[in-house]
Design brief:
By secondary structure, this protein is α/β, with parallel strands linked by helices. The protein has three domains: about 260 residues, Thiamin diphosphate (ThDP)-binding fold, Pyr/PP domains (Rossmann fold, 3-Layer(aba) Sandwich), CATH 3.40.50; about 160 residues, Rossmann fold (3-Layer(aba) Sandwich); about 120 residues, Rossmann fold. The protein is about 40% helix and about 15% strand. Strand 13, helix 20 and strand 14 form a beta-alpha-beta unit. The longest helix has 19 residues. The relative contact order is 0.08.
Length: about 600
């Protein structure tokens, strides 16, 4: 049988096929995705689940003139392959290759850049309103959103607005009952009922109540049904809503059976689907250090409560859920709610550990300021995936947290240099603080085998000296301290350098800094966060306020959005790897 996919470079090629050929194309597209992702890694399950829908959308709509917006972007691999990136798809998420998410500067078919969830309806509605204002009333605007993403506050806000607009907007709900972890909440339960209760779908319908033309639910893997319904909806004016039922991981049995693991399974055998075993490491992932430690603390402290916005597995709070289910809350993709929920819990004398990825806390910035810090409530923020996170790229790097958090009054900001420090600050926080604290730590493996030491309390606002020297002082924050230590070991004149771990960006250890500025003529700061407004800026402010005149050089993330790629390659590019740091220290000393 002739291979159809090999002759398709863009949607114009796709539209040359007849509808009867599309199921074969769906099989080929699934096989292509599985083949590449099995060796290159990436987000698998979500893209496999929307193959038929992706084909139907590009087949019936005039993309890119009709505007198609994907929510989050985990499910957009088929879209990328059909829109001119098939031959470079093997570079997906690789350093120098195409991005893992839709990106406007990568393709005209990527109508909106995405990475964080629940933005698609707002963006597509904005496009539709703009088209009306420009008199382009025949243009279509489509948002594809998942059942976990649509439960977010931002999506509800957009639905509320869209329902009273005259926008030519089509919202497609890709309902597979799972995000990364299984979907949660009352809306999820409602959608489950709608799938089996035709009366509920036809009459007592939440979406219809918001003035949408609702249709569905329909089988998202039945191409004739999808094509027929989309063809009909093209003729309907105003806001429309199509409810599509799909299976995440469709076409790969193990991905269908274990949807959490196969969201992003790593390397696997493309025939059997079995994941390839990675070489066992003696070290522990930072999220597992957090997950195991909070369980250990919660076993003895019944005031501890854990909260996460849809990241139970990623943050290792699954361990807490298993041991203390009544004190563990997955609130869905709702970062703002997670923060203010934690604030409410804190008012009642409990100790909320609110675990949010660094990049996602940006979505709840007002709540951190207004609901937590302003009221000086002792919420314990645990910011996973801080610093450079690798292949997910610019939308996911946690490089802004030190800068955007240190300016907030009442908030303590701490960055552990290793697993033991993370363990001890978690212990310290649950002993009782009078202010909120943000603890930020990276993704991936630590570097200490025996990290489960007896707990030791950390004095808030204190740094430590890791190495004594006599000429230049290097001040680091967080796990980049390891690179500094290794860089100094390469140097012939290492005795000239002292190395200090400040640990706290706020409050700074003023006593230690006065000692440093009195003793050394050259100060070098280093961080895995943005230089603008970050840790280095805090040291420069200290020097200015105290009239110190020494040369201060700041190293860190430059004032750019950083591309995707392995952390090792990104550090090399940014000059934060061991060898580059060693050379930089030589030049600055």
């Amino acid at each position: 049988m002739k291979n159809l996919l090999e002759n398709i470079s863009n949607p114009a090629d796709l539209r040359k096929l007849n509808p009867a050929q599309l199921p074969q194309l769906a099989k080929e597209l699934r096989a292509f995705i599985i083949d590449i992702v099995s060796t290159k890694e990436g987000h698998l399950g979500a893209s496999l689940g929307v193959v038929e829908l992706t084909i139907a959308l590009h087949y019936l709509f005039d993309t890119p003139n009709d505007l198609l917006v994907w929510d989050v972007g985990h499910q957009a691999y088929g879209h990328k392959i059909l829109t001119g990136r098939k031959n470079v798809f093997h570079t997906n998420r690789q350093f120098g290759g195409i991005a893992g998410f839709p990106t406007r500067n990568e393709s005209k078919f990527d109508a909106f850049g995405v990475g964080h969830s629940s933005t698609s309806i707002s963006a597509a509605l904005g496009m539709a309103i703009a088209s009306n204002l420009k008199g382009e009333t025949q243009k279509h605007h489509i948002a594809v959103i998942g059942d976990s993403s649509i439960a977010s506050g931002m999506a509800f806000e957009a639905l509320n607005h869209a329902g009273v607009s005259k926008a030519n907007l089509l919202i497609i709900l890709n309902d597979n009952a799972i995000g990364i972890d299984p979907a949660v909440g009352a809306l999820k339960e409602y959608l489950t009922k709608v799938k089996t209760d035709k009366r509920l779908a036809a009459q007592n319908n939440i979406i219809k109540a918001l003035n949408f033309d609702y249709s569905g639910p329909i089988d998202g893997h039945d191409l004739p049904k999808i094509l027929s319904e989309l063809e009909r909806l093209k003729t309907v004016k105003g806001p429309k809503f199509l409810h599509v039922i799909t299976t995440k991981g469709k076409g790969l049995q193990l991905a269908e059976e274990d949807q959490v693991t196969y969201h992003a399974p790593g390397k696997f055998d493309k025939i059997s689907g079995k994941r390839l075993k990675k070489e066992a490491s003696l070290f522990t992932k930072y999220q597992d250090v957090f997950g195991k430690t909070i369980v250990e603390l919660a076993d003895k402290n019944d005031k501890i409560v854990a909260i996460t916005p849809a990241m139970l597995t990623g943050s290792s709070l699954k361990l807490m859920l298993e041991k203390h289910p009544k004190r563990t809350f997955d609130v869905g993709i709702a970062e703002q709610h997670a923060v203010t929920l934690a604030a409410g819990i804190a008012t009642q004398g409990l100790m909320p550990f609110c675990n949010i990825y660094s990049t996602f806390l940006q979505r709840a910035y007002d709540q951190v300021i207004h609901d937590v810090a302003l009221q000086n409530l002792p919420v314990i923020f645990c910011l996973d995936r801080a610093g450079l996170v690798g292949e997910d790229g610019a939308t996911h790097h946690g490089v802004f947290d030190l800068a955007y958090l240190r300016l907030i009054p009442n908030l303590i900001v701490f960055a552990p240099r290793n697993e033991i420090e993370l363990r001890n600050i978690l212990y310290t926080a649950q002993l009782g603080l009078e202010s909120p604290i943000a603890i930020r730590y990276p993704r991936g493996l630590g570097n200490i085998v025996d990290w489960q030491k007896p707990f030791r309390r950390i004095e808030i606002g204190t740094g430590v000296c890791l190495k004594e020297g006599n000429k230049t002082a290097i001040l680091s924050i967080g796990t980049v301290a390891k690179n500094v230590s290794e860089a100094l070991q390469l140097m012939e004149n290492a005795e000239n350098f002292s190395h200090y771990d400040l640990r706290f960006v706020k409050p700074l250890d003023d006593n230690l800094l006065h000692t440093i500025f009195t003793k050394y003529q050259t100060i070098i700061t280093i961080e895995d966060g943005t230089i603008k407004g970050g840790f280095g800026s805090a040291i420069l402010e200290f020097a200015s306020q105290n009239n110190y005149k020494q040369k201060v050089k700041t190293l860190g993330i430059p004032d750019n959005f950083i591309e995707h790629g392995s952390v090792t390659k990104l550090q090399l590019k940014l000059g934060l790897d061991v060898n580059n740091l060693s050379n930089t220290f030589k030049l600055l000393s």
